[in-house]
Design goal:
This protein is mostly beta strands. It contains 1 helix and 27 strands. It has one helix spanning 6-24, and strands at residues 55-61, 66-73, 76-82, 91-95, 100-104, 110-114, 121-124, 132-135, 142-145, 151-156, 163-168, 173-178, 184-190, 194-200, 206-212, 215-220, 227-231, 236-241, 244-250, 258-263, 269-274, 280-284, 292-294, 304-305, 311-315, 322-326, 333-337. Strand 1 (55-61) and strand 2 (66-73) form a beta hairpin.
Length: 344
């Protein structure tokens, strides 16, 4: 693909600058990172302006491997065109609070992009292109790992001073989560051996946290060392505080083979996505209300944070709509994301 002309590229950068300022809501301009640990990206932004209206953030659209803007508000959104040419990246994720994207290109370069800049810089090389990226709730840390591998790349100091280190595992990794203090949870094992969840502190101290019959997702609560862990085989959602588990929900509450767990930024709500029946379960972490089930005209595959207190992407948009859940109202709302428009 030919590089766009200078005019459209400047328009694109100007549009994203405005976009970043809207998202920051007066918090000041974000300065792009200059601490690249490898060659700068050669990927060139596409020549399309980004809307400066209400924003849901950037989303990594796994249906076509593109990074796009999602404008509007829950229930009335518009998916923007790719910010980079299709095929420029193999994986990506966006942290709304730090306005930071981590992107993995087909050559295995892990790159960081901080809005309003559209210029990624490399923070690590030789990373598996099948890796997934999991940010901490506030976005200051990230775990990058290929499911089934035995090591995790830990990214710290986000967004302005990224540094990387490798954390090893004794068995195949099923999932990872990172707290806002840099504690990592590693779920390892499989269906035949069971799943073990280990806790690794920022200083490197390891301890065993949980044994699961089946991995059902996990997440930290924002600003806390408390974690939420789902057991897909036992149909339980548990909160771990100081190493002690409290069961929050079971199959009797509607839990049906959880595959992902997330928590609201204010620590009020937990949400699970279930693969058994495609339903969602909202759990009040204050204990004031009973768990409540929601349905989706989809089969949820993830719970990825969008801008907002408790807004999560359930499925990526493709030729058909994607779906999201807004879980912090009087009741949860399952809402659609418009499909990818032809030619974009």
């Amino acid at each position: 693909m030919k590089s766009p002309s200078l005019g459209p590229r400047l328009a694109q950068i100007a549009g994203v600058a405005s976009f970043g300022m809207v998202l920051l809501s007066g918090c000041g301009t974000v300065t792009p990172s200059s601490l690249a640990k490898g060659p700068a990206s050669t990927n060139t932004p596409t020549g399309t302006n980004v809307s400066t209206g209400a924003q849901m953030g950037l989303i990594w659209n796994s249906s076509d491997s593109t990074l796009r803007t999602l404008t509007g508000v829950p229930g009335s959104t518009q998916l923007g065109p790719p910010l980079f040419p299709v095929g420029a990246y193999a994986a990506g994720a966006f942290a709304p609070l730090t306005q930071t994207a981590l992107l993995l290109d087909p050559k295995g370069n892990l790159q960081i992009m901080i809005l309003p800049s559209l210029v990624p810089s490399t923070v690590a090389q030789s990373v598996s292109r099948s890796s997934v990226i999991a940010f901490s709730p506030h976005g200051g840390y990230a775990a990058v790992f290929a499911p089934g591998s035995t090591s995790v790349l830990m990214v710290t100091g986000l967004p302005q001073a990224p540094a990387v280190s490798t954390v090893s595992a004794s068995a195949a990794i099923q999932g990872a989560a990172v707290s806002d203090a840099g504690t990592m949870l590693l779920a390892t094992g499989g269906a035949s051996t069971g799943v073990t969840v280990a806790s690794i502190s920022a200083s490197g101290t390891r301890s065993s946290l949980a044994s699961l019959a089946g991995y059902g997702g996990m997440s930290f609560i924002a600003g806390s060392e408390d974690s939420l862990i789902g057991d897909a085989a036992a149909n339980t959602l548990s909160r771990y505080h100081g190493g002690v588990a409290t069961v929050l929900a079971t199959h009797a509450n509607g839990l049906n083979q959880p595959l992902a767990v997330a928590a609201s930024q204010d620590g009020h709500w937990a949400v699970t996505a279930d693969q058994g029946d495609g339903s969602l379960l909202r759990v009040d972490l204050t204990g004031a209300t009973a768990p409540a089930q929601s349905t989706c005209a989809c089969s949820p595959t993830q719970l990825l944070s969008l801008s907002g207190n408790a807004v999560f992407e359930l499925t990526p948009p493709a030729a058909t709509p994607g779906w999201m859940i807004e879980a912090d109202g009087p009741t949860s709302r399952v809402l659609f994301i418009p499909p990818v428009r032809g030619g974009q």
